[in-house]
Amino acid sequence: MKTSPHAEDLAFISKHAVEHGLHLSGKQLQQLGDYADMLDEQNRATNLISRKENAPLLIRHIFHSLLIGFAYPFLPGQKVLDLGTGGGLPGIPLAIAYPETNFLLVDATGKKITACRKMADALGLKNVHTRKVRVEEMRGLTFDLVLSRQVAQLATLCRYCEPLIGEDGLLICLKGGKLDTEIEEALTAAPGNNGFPSEIRTESIEEFDPCFAEKFIVIAAGK
């Protein structure tokens, strides 16, 4: 039987997922590996992800996205917005891991959304929807969670997301670097964002892999 080229990385992902209460089936692990291949292929035609980091794509992009699920357990029926999804990150890996949660992936760039739709369809993800739209144009929709991966400064994200986040909803970001100033600016701007956010906390993820040094999960909550 032919060994998957991703076998070692998928075993690494599965081990850490189980330790954090996320049990990925063989099918889900296969989908993650297939998505890595599709993402790599699509990235050659459309600039979807950075090529600067040396860690394997499955770790530095896909496992990175799944770490949100370690900090926050997604629930069946929840509505999740992946804002500025780019190549489907973090939305597609999380949609694979949480098939009963609903994900809307949005981006202002048509080529990126087209690529996301193509990959989601090929993976058979019925819980993924896509839309080409700027966040400023979204009206009348609310979500339990809004996700973002290195899209903008926290204060800007909070301003965009405040009208999109339902009661008790959260903004969860994957960000890197020194965040003290960003967090302070977001909290200072909160009165103008109808009080959102009232609280921001961070979780370091460096323990999982050296490529996540100075990278964090940032969770912003309202009142």
Poorly predicted segments: none
Structural class: alpha/beta
Helicity range: 25-40%
| Coarse morphology | globular
Rounded to an integer, what's the Rg over CA atoms? 17 Å
Strand line-up of the largest beta sheet: 3-2-1-4-5-7-6
Number of helices: 7
Give a nutshell description of this structure.
With 223 residues, the protein is of the alpha/beta class. The protein has helices spanning 7-19, 26-45, 57-71, 91-97, 110-123, 154-161, 180-188; strands spanning 79-83, 102-107, 128-132, 143-149, 165-176, 199-204, 215-221. Strands 3-2-1-4-5-7-6 form a 7-stranded mixed β-sheet, with helices on both faces.
Features:
single chain, 223 residues, alpha/beta, Rossmann fold, seven-stranded mixed β-sheet, 7 helices, 7 strands, 39% helix
What does this structure look like?
- The protein has one domain: Rossmann fold (3-Layer(aba) Sandwich), CATH 3.40.50.150.
- It contains seven helices and seven strands.
- It has helices at residues 7-19, 26-45, 57-71, 91-97, 110-123, 154-161, 180-188, and strands at residues 79-83, 102-107, 128-132, 143-149, 165-176, 199-204, 215-221.
- The protein is globular, with a radius of gyration of 17 Å.
- The protein starts with 6 loop residues before the first helix and ends with a strand.
- The mean pLDDT is 92.
Give the topology:
Layout: H1 7-19, H2 26-45, H3 57-71, E1 79-83, H4 91-97, E2 102-107, H5 110-123, E3 128-132, E4 143-149, H6 154-161, E5 165-176, H7 180-188, E6 199-204, E7 215-221
Helix pairs in contact: 1-3, 2-4, 3-4, 6-7
